[in-house]
Amino acid sequence: MSAADPTTNRPTNYCKTCSLRRIRCDRTTPHCLKCTGRGLSCPGYKRQIRWVNSIASRGKFKGLSAPTLEPATLQSPEAVPSTVQSRPLAQGELDEPSQEAVNQLIEYFTLELAPKNVWVHSPENGYTRLVVRLAHTQPALRYAIIGLSAAYQSYASASTTSGFSQKAHLKAITLITDQIRTLTSMGTNGKHTLPTGHQEATDAVLAATLVVCNHSLLDCSTADAVFHLRATRTLIKSHLTKGATDNELFTFIANQVASLDILACTTLFDPDLVRDVVMPRLDSGSVPFGHFLLGIQRITTVSTSSHSKGTPDGDPSFLEELEDELELARAATYMAVGRTLKPSRDAHLSDTTLLIEAFHQAGLIYACRRLGVGSIGGFEEVHRSKLFRLLKKAINEGSYLPGLSWPILMAGISCHGHHNRIQLVRQLCRDLVRSSPFRYYSNILRFLEELWESSDDDWILVARVWENRGEPLLAM
């Protein structure tokens, strides 16, 4: 009996990623272990909808592209804050997707993207509980989500990105701008508290802007991502000054923005940008990494302060104080995670522990490198060695590398001249790019290669050059 082709009898209900890899899928729900164990995106087992930039999929028009429209001229509406403006879309530029397609893309966001966009995924995830529900009634948020999901699906199915995701992304920006005009005009009419319906619209605009920021990173547009991140700052501060009730959704999104904002500022050097950062709202209950972010922002603020002469150069007591602060922050994170994760999620505890420990060691290395105090008593080397041991463990255990992008960058800026460590970071960066659709991760290795090739190990000089040429370095 001749051996059959292993793909001949392969069930059609394998996940798309396993089918493309030509391996047997274990069909674990909601995501197969063979994908998650390798840090790959598992699209699930339902019928996948792939967007193609053509008029028809069969017949005489098969393969013909839809006509493209020239971008409209950028407007400058007076009612919209300068940080939140976009070009209007021409009528008919985006073919409306069917309700089935919209539901499928929202479900993809719920199952695939929402778990990856928080520090620790649990049933309390605000994206799945709050944001997705609002997307069904708020068009700006809905288009932001389906645009991001369509882009991710193109990556997961190894197909070329269609024009649909970008058009949905642009339409979301236009709808956000229109909604802000409306809300701004209400504010100028002397109303300080928004009605319930308008309150939901405000929350949706804030959530949509955050999703749009994430979408920008898919295309390696770090300058656009910083632009949208600053827009979320404007929206949050406007929201608070109007006396709006701090509801659960707003608090969740504000804490999400704080995480991105503070980590983004670790590689940015504009004092105004650093000063206006959104801070985590620790009075809202369990906030994983909330105290850690406060400690990191303190380091960033000290480094960019006009009173930089007060930086504790050569003062061992400052490093001891900072180490104590971050150790307390680590303990607070463990407590917050313990309240969030259920005992049934023990399989995730190892990855979560590695994540917490890696960020703790990376935070102390960041303090040394940003403030220039790492040579005191071998302080930096102690924590650098611990971080590299954790990163080796991440490779051996197949951990989800995109969650470790910031610790990987901190490891990279601290290993100038150490060949073996450079090789490890180089491997991590390449695996990071392969395991995620976020193209901006490729900038991390480009930046580090430029740093490693220089005779000076001052990463801040290189990062300033990148920022000044409009290509800010990010590792969020």
From TrEMBL:
Subcellular location: Nucleus
Annotated Pfam families: Fungal_trans_2, Zn_clus
One GO CC term on file: nucleus
GO MF terms, alphabetically ordered: DNA-binding transcription factor activity, RNA polymerase II-specific; zinc ion binding
Spans through the membrane: none
Entry-linked Gene3D superfamilies: Zn(2)-C6 fungal-type DNA-binding domain
CDD domains: GAL4
Classification via SMART domains: GAL4
Protein name per Swiss-Prot or TrEMBL: Zn(II)2Cys6 transcription factor
Species annotation: Fusarium agapanthi
